[in-house]
Amino acid sequence: MNWDMDAKAATYKVERKMNSGDAYTTIASSLTGSSYRDTTALNGTSYIYRVASVDSLGSVVNTSNEATAANYAYRDFFTNGSSNWTANAGTWSASTGVYNQTSKTNNPPMSTLNGLTYGNFQAQAVVKINGSSNPDNWAGIVFRKTNAADSPWTSGYLFVIQANGTVGFSRQGTAVGPAASTGLDPTAQYVTLKVVANGSTLRGYVNGSLVITTTDTTWSSGYFGLVTFNNSASFQNVLITNSIPATPTSLSGSSATGSQVVNLTWTASNANSYVVMRATSASGPFTMIGTANGTSFTDNYALINHAYYYLVTGVNYAGAESNDSNIAGPIAASY
User: Fold this and answer.
1) In terms of Cα–Cα distance, which of 333, 329, 247 is closest to 282?
2) CATH architecture of the domain formed by 249-332
3) Hey, which residues does 69 pair with through a beta bridge?
4) Domains 74-241 and 249-332 share a fold
């Protein structure tokens, strides 16, 4: 981290915490420069930092803004080759920040991250399909494989985008949950695929937007890899964090008579912020209506005599999202 020098400071101290409601802990003091490297951060853990200016008497005279950082369990921008990966099938090579697979086979071509397994985690990869818009052409992520060399037909889950823009989860050739159409053309542009696997809950994101939530209990942990089918493809910017926020609990809501306002409260998890979602049915679909840094939220746009259902998820600074809270509802604003 880096900061501007303070004329009032004799020295600086760096403070750190994990969650917005926590007290700060000093991790370095008596610093005289304008930078510091935190070598004690745990892989997959998000932190909040600030710097305090200390005068010659040892008193804090100023504190900086807060800065957040996510320490990824693994990240690869493919600028130094692909030595951390094993090509199980296909032809793979890294060049100038891109990991390319050039075989057009249906084996399928796959490359597995060496020696690392993940259970509850978030992973993303940026992918582009180098082929036609035939939906039989696809590329994406494979995760929770039992053995590193297993093909996706043997073990693990797939989250892939087809050349026609459709995304979905599957295992051993069978769909897990619904597919979703994105309207994107992954043969003409790079697309960011992200998976959040938390217990039996699997969430799939495309370019930062949640598109699929489903559940499956077949595999709870395993190896991670990149995969293509029937086409060549290019991958960039693989990021993995194994820190997933706990699920918010005890969500409840109320609305005063004559008000179009619904007030929500819940019990905090170890999240840095929360996403609030609403639906007109307990079975959904739920739509995001706002975010909160604390444990309360006011829905100012509830229609009179309409019943709503709400749920909340927790999000950390790496963007990993918890499982859904309990559903609160029906809650109706009324005269």
Assistant:
1) 329
2) Sandwich (2.60)
3) 47
4) no
Distance CA 181, CA 158 (A): 16
Which residue in the block uniquely carries the two structure tokens 């921008």?
77
Specify whether the CB–CB gap between 93 and 37 falls below 8 A. Answer: no
- 74-241 belongs to which homologous superfamily? Exo-inulinase; domain 1 (2.60.120.560)
Domain 11-70 is in which class? mainly beta
Torsion sign over Cα 318, 319, 322, 325: positive
Residues 182 and 211: beta-carbon distance below 8 Å = yes
From residue 200, how far is each of 43, 114, 155, 157, 217 by CA, in Å?
23, 24, 15, 12, 5
Tokens, residue 129: 């399909």
Other beta carbons within 10 Å of 77: 14
- Report if pTM > 0.90: no
Residue 34: helix, strand or coil by DSSP? coil
Q: What is the pLDDT along the chain (335 residues), one digit of tens a residue?
A: 889 999 999 999 999 998 777 899 999 999 999 989 898 887 657 788 999 999 999 999 999 998 877 668 898 999 989 999 999 999 999 999 999 999 887 789 999 999 999 999 999 999 999 988 888 899 999 999 999 999 999 999 999 999 999 999 999 999 999 999 999 999 999 999 999 999 999 999 999 888 999 999 999 999 999 999 999 999 999 999 887 889 999 999 998 777 789 999 999 888 888 999 999 999 888 989 999 989 999 999 898 889 999 999 998 877 788 999 999 999 987 76
| Domains in the chain: boundaries | 11-70, 74-241, 249-332
Token pair 């600074």 in the structure block, residue: 317
Q: Considering only CA atoms, which of 74, 81, 45, 121 is closest in space to residue 239?
A: 74
